[in-house]
Every structure is written in C-alpha cells, then in structure tokens.
Amino acid sequence: MKAVLLNGSPREGNSYTALAALKKGFTHIEDLVIEEIAAGDVSVSPCLACEVCHDSGMCVFDDDTNEIMDDIVSADVIVFATPVYWWGITAQLKLIIDKFYSRSSQLMECKKQVGIIAVGQMPVEDTQYELIRKQFECICGYLGWDIAFYNAYSAYDAGDLAENADAIAEIEELWKQIK
Ligand SMILES: Cc1cc2nc3c(=O)[nH]c(=O)nc-3n(C[C@H](O)[C@H](O)[C@H](O)COP(=O)(O)O)c2cc1C
Asked: Which ligand 1 atom minimizes the distance to the CA of 157?
C-alpha cells in the first residue's frame, strides 16, 4: 500500500506536525510505503488550460508536476494537510490539485482513500472548515475517491498544534480509518 502525504503549508508548522503524528500512527499499517510532498518545496506552475495533457496525459511544464502526478496516480491513500488561507486551502496545494486535470481519467479509474486535515487560526466551528470539507467532498466525489477522514484543528503559531496533546493523540489514531 502506498500513501502520499501532501503538506499544503510553506513552513514546517502545524500541518507538518499533523502529518508527523499521522505518520507515527501509519506505522501500524503493514507494508505501507509513505511518500511525502511539501507543496512549498516543489515547483508546480499554474495550469494554462492548454489542454495538451488531454492527449498526452502529461503536463507541458518542465517542472515537478509530472513526477508528483505519478505519485498521486500510484497512491492508494492520499492525505492532504492544509493550513486555512483566506477561508480555503493554500494556493500551493491548489496548484497541485489543479494538475489532477492532467491525469483525471487515470485518477477516476483507481479508487483511493483520502484523508484531510485542515489547520487554521479560527475555532473549529468556523464556516471555513465546512467550506474546505465541501471542496474535498466535491473533488473526491468527482474522482470517485472515498474520504476516510476529515479533521480540523485550531492552531496559529507554527508550534501551536504540537502543544495540543489531545489533537496529536487523535491524529495518531487516524490510521484506524484506513481500510
Ligand atoms: C496568508 C494567510 C492567510 C490566512 N488565512 C486564514 C484564514 O482565513 N483563517 C484562519 O483561521 N487562519 C488563517 N491563517 C492562519 C493559518 O491558517 C494558521 O497560522 C495555520 O496554523 C498555519 O498552518 P501551518 O503552521 O501548517 O503553516 C492565515 C495565514 C496566512 C499566512
């Protein structure tokens, strides 16, 4: 089984901490290969809507897009951890998700289990977390993927989530949602 952990944050902050806690739990899953992608560290140009990928299945850019898409296509599990930026996911993560367009028919053919962790400054009751949940429900519904978990946490400074022992303990148990 292969899991891709996609960190939408440009910093080693709360999303990074969440994925580290998740990884600790994921060690319970037998034969799991983990691939980590930090959206802030990769080079992914914005989609041009040139449609070349619709014939070739490849993005025209000579950047990290095609390699990342190879990882996404071959993954059984994809976990998105994203800070909330302006009531939504980060631009860095959205650049990568936009490129799913280049492999959409392939991605629809292979069922995936998806986990989502959203971290924002606002309390977890804020509408922003519902907006993000809805966006992923639409994306996963379109691609035919299953959402195994969606968890939201309130944290602001880079070290805040690490100090929330209850949140970390909860994230470490999320591997149990993967079938
Ligand atoms: C550009 C920017 C926009 C942000 N917008 C929001 C927002 O709309 N709602 C919110 O709750 N927090 C917002 N935040 C705060 C981050 O979501 C918060 O600091 C989060 O913990 C960052 O996650 P990270 O440590 O993984 O980078 C924003 C931060 C930045 C830098």
From this structure: 19
Give distance in angstroms: CA of 52 to centre of ligand 1: 34
Rounded Cα gap, residues 178 and 148, in angstroms: 6
The separation between CA 108 and the C-alpha centre of its own chain, rounded to angstroms, equals 17
Encode pLDDT of 44-61 as tens digits: 999 999 999 999 999 999
Nearest CA to ligand 1 atom 23: 83
- 2-177 is a CATH 3.40.50.360 domain: yes
Question: Does any ligand 1 atom lie closer than 6 A to the CB of residue 122?
Answer: yes
User: Residue 165 half-sphere exposure, CB side, CA atoms within 13 Å?
Assistant: 0
CA angle 150, 152, 154 (to 5 degrees): 170
Q: Which residue has the tokens 């989609």?
A: 47
Domains of the chain, residue spans = 2-177
**pLDDT tens digits for 71-98?**
999 999 999 999 999 999 999 999 999 9
CA of 83 to the centre of ligand 1 (A): 5
